[in-house]
Write a structure and sequence with these properties.
3 domains, two-stranded antiparallel sheet, binds zinc ion
Length: 287
């Protein structure tokens, strides 16, 4: 197994010189007691900048944390290996593939190949880094890279390729299906640490190594409540648009909203550093 790295070494390894997450509203709130005119202006500008950054979540921002050139090739080879691993086990199985099992499979199948020492160090560093370094202000329900999804606790949802927790999620999903019938689909259920690594690092890769930009759309590994019961729903036939703001124009969204199912994890203008996600149903309690 890989050893846990010292957190501060991420900064060294990734070459992250300056802290860059703008001014978060939580921090601002502390300074809100009787601000002078100048302070008020600074606060307003910080908040405006923050909201602009979140509204333009897919655009780089000057404060973003980016993987530096000396780490880039390790990052790239890690992403490509994770993709090969997903191809090996299949999309559905990969959703609940645990980290240690994934490493073992990679070692045993030459199509994937064992993760190198530097790739494992990189994954550890990313996992144990404080998400606030990137601007992600949410909680971290999974504390260890080795946290497991246990097969006995989950159910595969037919035709979705996704799994849900028996205890936490299946009842509410069942109720949603009862109310909305075949129009609604589960677009993403449980995601293991390994799956969240792939999603987060894929997004980072598309964004030329911009970890902050990725974290505005996807929780860093460990921070996703998909590891803990939350799930995403969409409208059948709406495809990738289910993960955009226009999902709110669908009948499924409107019905879910009327029926009171939309307890959102990431509401509009949230202070967690995450874009508005009207499709993400909050199931699990905060940690
Ligand atoms: Zn989600």
């Amino acid at each position: 197994m890989v050893e846990r790295m010292n957190r501060r070494s991420l900064l060294k390894t990734l070459g992250l010189g300056c802290v860059g997450f703008g001014i978060a509203p939580e921090l601002l709130a502390k300074t809100l007691e009787l601000p002078s005119v100048d302070e008020k202006k600074i606060i307003d500008e910080g908040l405006k900048d923050y909201l602009e950054k979140i509204h333009n979540f897919n655009e780089p921002h000057p404060d973003d944390v980016i993987i530096n050139s000396s780490t880039y090739s390790t990052f790239e080879s890690t992403v490509l290996r994770l993709r090969r691993l997903q191809r090996l086990v299949g999309h559905g199985n990969f959703n609940i593939l645990n980290f240690p099992d994934g490493l073992a499979l990679a070692r045993n199948y030459s199509k994937v190949g064992a993760f190198t020492k530097s790739e494992l160090d990189f994954l550890e560093l990313v996992f144990y880094e404080d998400g606030q370094r990137y601007g992600f202000m949410g909680q971290k329900p999974l504390k260890e890279i080795t946290d497991q999804v246990k097969k006995k606790d989950v159910i595969k949802i037919p035709r979705s390729g996704n799994y849900l927790y028996k205890e936490r999620s299946i009842e509410i999903y069942g109720n949603i299906k009862k109310e909305l019938g075949d129009k609604v689909i589960l677009t993403s259920g449980i995601r293991s640490v390994m799956k969240q690594f792939l999603l987060f690092l894929n997004k980072t890769y598309e964004s030329k190594g911009n970890l902050s930009l990725a974290s505005r759309s996807l929780a860093p590994p460990g921070y996703s409540f998909h590891g803990n019961g939350d799930f995403d729903v969409g409208q059948v036939g709406y495809g990738k648009l289910n993960f955009t703001g226009t999902f709110t124009e669908t009948e499924v969204y409107k019905r879910l909203s009327e029926l009171g199912y939309l307890k959102l994890r990431y509401p509009e203008d949230n202070t967690l550093g995450v874009r508005y996600e009207p499709w993400h149903i909050k199931i699990s309690i905060d940690v």
